[in-house]
């Protein structure tokens, strides 16, 4: 087969005519360098490449074998250890298996020449073979594999939670103690998470400049649209951006009051972040978690509720209110309606109302009084 200059090809990573003291180790490192070069040429992020390499090295250490000696049985043993010893979720194990499959397919691809290089170095039969197959990897049978206990806030729970967050501001002010500004910031942060259907990371990385006008909703002023710059990325790709249009007037009023009247009192006017700390830093996702948990525990709400439940509630409540599903899907950044459906847990009242609407054409109008029955 003709050698080609593809990034990651064996002849580009191996120096001919050089005697190696540890040829197996040298070959293994060359394979990883080649894979890195191939992924870099494809435009993958450095964090993704590094994480993939780390996983392959872990598998290599687990098997105590070099890649050209790996077999499907090694994958079986490794997958079993991930389940029985590390207790990882099926989705996580499948992702690990997928990474291993990508590396293995790279080595077996004849265009890169690694099989030929191994046989030239170590003898006939010493070459990589396919090790991850349908029958030894976890199939993606469901669109959602998260904890089935996870659910959105009910409207009553949401109101209690947001009211409690507001109460913490008033308590701090009455007690004349520190923390009133931080409490106000966090109360507004939770309103923004729900009001625009955001994830924690998306919320923590917001800047003041991310707010903009929406000509179709002039009543919201400069807060008619929110540019989310750090949306959830696809594997190996940069964060996905999206614009989220403002829907709730009360949420716009809350963030407007915070930005214009409260945030300046932190004293860091030159900091771009929407959510700043008392020391001039940017709020991080773990801090959002900590505040959320403290409020949830104080209210005695179910522990299955997480900050992400605010995003679920945004989808569910808008669905119950009759908002177009396609609009909701674009708002929250889902590529398919099936993903949005996962977030939707409508109430019994909503289902009963929908049922009555569905049955109305067949049953006809309801009687006006008992005489017509």
Spell the H/E element sequence. HHHHHHHHHEEEHHHHHH
Instruction: Output the CATH topology of the largest domain.
Output: hpI Integrase, Chain A
Fraction in beta strands: under 5%
Derived structural class = mainly alpha
Could you describe the 3D structure shown?
This protein folds into 2 domains: 10-122, DNA polymerase, domain 1 (Orthogonal Bundle), CATH 1.10.150; 155-336 and 347-360, Intergrase catalytic core (hpI Integrase, Chain A, Orthogonal Bundle), CATH 1.10.443. The protein has helices at residues 10-13, 23-41, 46-63, 72-84, 90-108, 114-122, 155-174, 180-195, 200-204, 249-262, 285-299, 308-320, 325-332, 337-343, 348-363, and strands spanning 211-212, 225-231, 240-245. The chain starts with 9 loop residues before the first helix and ends in a 10-residue tail after the last helix. With 373 residues, the chain is mainly alpha-helical. Mean pLDDT is 87; it is low at 141-145. It has a 3-stranded antiparallel sheet.
């Amino acid at each position: 087969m003709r050698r080609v200059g593809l990034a990651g090809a064996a002849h580009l990573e191996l120096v001919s005519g050089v005697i190696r003291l540890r040829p197996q180790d040298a070959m293994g490192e060359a394979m990883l360098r080649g894979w890195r070069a191939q992924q870099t040429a494809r435009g993958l992020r450095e964090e993704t490449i590094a994480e993939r390499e780390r996983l392959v090295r872990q598998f290599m250490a687990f098997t105590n074998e070099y890649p050209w000696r790996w077999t499907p049985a090694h994958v079986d043993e490794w997958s079993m250890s991930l389940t029985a010893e590390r207790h990882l979720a099926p989705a996580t194990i499948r992702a690990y298996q997928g990474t291993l499959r990508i590396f293995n397919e790279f080595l077996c691809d004849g265009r890169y020449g690694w099989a030929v290089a191994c046989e030239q170095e170590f003898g006939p039969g010493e070459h990589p073979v396919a090790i991850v197959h349908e029958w030894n990897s976890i199939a993606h049978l469901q669109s959602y594999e998260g904890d089935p206990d996870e659910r959105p806030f009910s409207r009553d729970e949401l109101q209690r939670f947001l009211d409690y967050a507001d109460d913490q501001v008033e308590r701090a002010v009455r007690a004349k103690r520190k923390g009133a500004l931080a409490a106000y910031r966090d109360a507004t942060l939770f309103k923004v998470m729900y009001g625009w259907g955001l994830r924690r990371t998306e919320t923590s990385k917001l800047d003041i400049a991310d707010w903009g006008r929406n000509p179709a909703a002039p009543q919201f002023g400069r807060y008619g649209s929110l540019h989310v710059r750090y949306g959830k990325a696809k594997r190996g790709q940069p964060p996905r951006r999206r614009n989220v249009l403002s829907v709730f007037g009360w949420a716009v009023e809350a963030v407007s009051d915070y930005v214009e009247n409260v945030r300046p009192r932190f004293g860091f006017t030159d900091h771009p972040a929407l959510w700043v700390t008392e020391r001039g830093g940017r709020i991080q996702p773990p801090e959002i978690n900590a505040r959320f948990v403290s409020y949830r525990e104080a209210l005695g709400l179910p522990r299955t509720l997480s900050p992400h439940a605010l995003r679920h509630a945004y989808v569910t409540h808008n669905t119950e209110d009759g908002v177009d599903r396609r609009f909701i899907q674009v708002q929250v950044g889902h590529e398919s309606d099936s993903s949005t459906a996962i977030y939707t847990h409508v109430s019994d009242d909503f289902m009963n109302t929908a049922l009555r609407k569905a049955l109305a054409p067949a049953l006809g109008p309801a009687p006006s009084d008992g005489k017509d029955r």
